[in-house]
Amino acid sequence: MEIVVDSHTHTIASGHAYSTILENAQASKAKGLKLLCTTDHAPEMPGAPHYWFFNNQRILPRFLHDVGILRGCEANTLNTDGDLDLPPSSYQHLDWIIASFHEPVFAPSTEELHTEALINVIKKGKADVLGHLGNPNFPFDIKAVLECAKEHNVAIEINNTSLTGKSRKGSDSRCAQIVEIGKEVGVYFTTGSDAHFCEEIAHLDLAKALLKKYGVDEEKVISTSTSRFLNFLLLRGKERIEEFAELY
C-alpha cells in the first residue's frame, strides 16, 4: 500500500512544533508525497495561532516544492454538542478539517459523553475527518461512531504517532479495534503522521501496517492516491480545486 498524502501535519504556528510550511513541503517532496495537508491547531489549543492564521491560508500557493498543499486545521472538539473552535468565517478558506479531542480543551469524561460529542461533531458537518481516535483517555462506542461516520462520509484517521507510543500512550490496541470495526462498517480511512518536525513527515509505516493487518481495501484509504483524496473532498461537498486538475 503506497501512501501519497500526509493528512495531518503541524508547523511552528502550532506553538509546539518546529518546522515551517516550506520545510514540511520540502520534506514531503523528498519522501515522494504528492499532497500535504497542513493542519495546525485551532485557537483554543494553548499556543495555537489566532483565527486569522486560518482565514488567511488562501494566500498559500497551491504547490510548494512541487507538492500540492491542502489548507487545513486540526480543530478542537469543544463540548458534547459537537462544536468546534473555528469561527464560521474560517471554513470557506480551508480544504480539510480534522476534529480531535485534546485534554487541555475537552477534559476526559465518560464513554457516553465522548460518544455523544463525536456523533454530534459528525452530524454538524464541519469535520472531514476524526483525528487520533485511539486515545485511551477518550473511550467511545466505536461501532456507533463509525457507523455515523460512514453515513455522513466523514473519514477516520489512523494516526502514526499514536502507534509509536510516544504520544497518547495505550492507543495501539484501540486503534486496532477501530481499524477492525471500521473495515466491517465500511468507513473511509486516512493516514496522518501528526508530524511536529519536518523529518516526521510521511512517517506512516505503522499506520500502513495496521491497515494491512486487517485487510483494509486500498479504495477505502483515501491517502493512497491523489484522486481518491481529492474526490473524497468533492464527496464532502467541497469545491473542486482547479490548480489540482491533473491530480483528480
Automatic annotation (TrEMBL):
<feature type="binding site">
    <location>
        <position position="74"/>
    </location>
    <ligand>
        <name>Zn(2+) 3</name>
    </ligand>
</feature>
<dbReference type="InterPro" id="IPR003141">
    <property type="entry name" value="Pol/His_phosphatase_N"/>
</dbReference>
<feature type="binding site">
    <location>
        <position position="102"/>
    </location>
    <ligand>
        <name>Zn(2+) 3</name>
    </ligand>
</feature>
<dbReference type="InterPro" id="IPR023710">
    <property type="entry name" value="Phosphatase_YcdX_put"/>
</dbReference>
<dbReference type="GO" id="GO:0008270">
    <property type="term" value="F:zinc ion binding"/>
</dbReference>
<feature type="binding site">
    <location>
        <position position="10"/>
    </location>
    <ligand>
        <name>Zn(2+) 1</name>
    </ligand>
</feature>
<dbReference type="InterPro" id="IPR004013">
    <property type="entry name" value="PHP_dom"/>
</dbReference>
<comment type="similarity">
    <text>Belongs to the PHP family.</text>
</comment>
<feature type="binding site">
    <location>
        <position position="74"/>
    </location>
    <ligand>
        <name>Zn(2+) 1</name>
    </ligand>
</feature>
<feature type="binding site">
    <location>
        <position position="194"/>
    </location>
    <ligand>
        <name>Zn(2+) 1</name>
    </ligand>
</feature>
<protein>
    <submittedName>
        <fullName>Phosphatase</fullName>
    </submittedName>
</protein>
<feature type="binding site">
    <location>
        <position position="8"/>
    </location>
    <ligand>
        <name>Zn(2+) 1</name>
    </ligand>
</feature>
<dbReference type="GO" id="GO:0005829">
    <property type="term" value="C:cytosol"/>
</dbReference>
<dbReference type="GO" id="GO:0071978">
    <property type="term" value="P:bacterial-type flagellum-dependent swarming motility"/>
</dbReference>
<dbReference type="InterPro" id="IPR016195">
    <property type="entry name" value="Pol/histidinol_Pase-like"/>
</dbReference>
<keyword id="KW-0378">Hydrolase</keyword>
<feature type="binding site">
    <location>
        <position position="196"/>
    </location>
    <ligand>
        <name>Zn(2+) 2</name>
    </ligand>
</feature>
<feature type="binding site">
    <location>
        <position position="41"/>
    </location>
    <ligand>
        <name>Zn(2+) 2</name>
    </ligand>
</feature>
<keyword id="KW-0479">Metal-binding</keyword>
<dbReference type="InterPro" id="IPR050243">
    <property type="entry name" value="PHP_phosphatase"/>
</dbReference>
<feature type="binding site">
    <location>
        <position position="16"/>
    </location>
    <ligand>
        <name>Zn(2+) 2</name>
    </ligand>
</feature>
<feature type="binding site">
    <location>
        <position position="132"/>
    </location>
    <ligand>
        <name>Zn(2+) 3</name>
    </ligand>
</feature>
<feature type="domain" description="Polymerase/histidinol phosphatase N-terminal">
    <location>
        <begin position="5"/>
        <end position="79"/>
    </location>
</feature>
<dbReference type="Pfam" id="PF02811">
    <property type="entry name" value="PHP"/>
</dbReference>
<keyword id="KW-0862">Zinc</keyword>
<dbReference type="GO" id="GO:0016791">
    <property type="term" value="F:phosphatase activity"/>
</dbReference>
